[in-house]
Structures are given as structure tokens and as C-alpha cells.
Amino acid sequence: MEKNLHYMDFLQPNERINYYYRMGVHADILDYHGECIDFCGRSIREDQADSSQKAYALITLFNAYISLDDLILAEYCLKEYENSRYADFRKKHFRAVLYTKRGRFAEAIQLYKECLQEAERDRRISVVSDLLEVYLEIGRNDLIKELIDSEADFLPANINIHPYRIKVAARYFKRKGVCQLSAGLTNEGFDSLLQSITYYRQLGDSEKAMQCIGLFLRHHRLSGKSLSFEHMEKIDKICHNEANE
Predict the structure, then answer these.
(1) What's the pLDDT tens digit per position in 133-144?
(2) Cα–Cα distance, 237 to 245 (Å, whole number)
(3) Where are the domains of the chain?
(4) What's this model's pTM, rounded to 2 decimal places?
């Protein structure tokens, strides 16, 4: 990515802004937070207009800062996004994320529920992932089950049409699996983690895929349970990069 920056001065301003924006989004999908912040920051500094592209760059920056636990800069990006005429239900979603990070769970839950009412089906899955995290944190297995049982209301119809959709699906199934393991649903949790692994592999993110296996093994270690032969066989196939059955 950096090599191409030497040629940016030869582009028209709009072309340069578009390039920075695309590279920032690409870096975000790959969890390259430093590069994401650099490219999106460049696009925002050059783009003086209140555009949908600038609004999305602010969203991308917010996600990067949240991943780095920099709540001060995340809040700054959120406030800038909230002032955009292109802001949508995500301003409530991201405010809820900040509430969650600060332990204000009741306020976060209320905003997440409002988001689920306002968002279209294909855009709800990331909200559900974050709401599951809150329910897990406060120990509400009943609400976790209720939310998971409503999957038909929020799973996107066509996950594979864009890398970002694949990423949010991988994140959802990973969190779903963790919640199911916490509730003692070992087989269901393992199946959800396998689904997450499938999506992370599509993105070429082997590190995140192995993290899912680590979560499952850690669950067994902490619970004192032995791995079944079926689970060991599937883990062996994953570790040897073979296709899941």
C-alpha cells in the first residue's frame, strides 16, 4: 500500500480521496488498524465536503480506534459522524458500543434494541454481535437464547457478496459460539465456531481461525471436560488445513 503513496500527487483530488478511502476500508477488513487510521485520516483531511464517503470513513476510523481501545479518539470520530447528514442508525450503534466499553450496560442494551428496530435485516448482524457481548457480560443466557433463536430476522441473505459481510458474519458466529459454550451447549458452540472459521478462511485470516479453536480448547480446559473423538478429528482437519465436512 505504501509504495503507491508516491504517485498520489499526480492524481486529481477526488481520485486521491477515493484511493485513500478504498485503502482504508481494505485495511479495516484485514484488521490493519494502523494503516486503516492512516488512509482514512488522509481521506478525511482532504475531503472538505459532507459526503457519504467521508461518513463511512469516520465509521471505519471509529471501528479501528475501538479495536485499539482508544475510547477518546473513537468518541471524537463518533461525534463527527453524528454531525453528518449521512449518519444513520449506526450513530446509536456506536454510542452503544462506547456505553458497553464503559460498563453502562442498561443504556447500551436500550440503544442496541432501537438499532435492531431501525436497521434493515442485512445490516443487523453487527448489532446482534455486540448485543450478545453485553448479554454474556451480565449473565443473561435467557436473552442470549432468545436473540440467537431469532437468527432469521438478522442473518444477511447473501453473506459472500462482499468481504466486509464475510467479516461481520465470522465475528457473529464466533461470538455466538462463545455464548453457547458459556451456556453449556458444547456441540452447538463448536458448530458455530466452525462456521466462523469457514468465514475467516475465506478472508485468509488463519490467525482468527485458530483463535476459534483456542476458545474451544480453553472451554474444555476450564470445564474439565475431555474432547470427543469427533471434535478432535475436526480440529485435526482444521489444523492440517483440510476442508471441513
Answers:
(1) 999 999 999 999
(2) 9
(3) 1-86, 88-157, 160-245
(4) 0.87
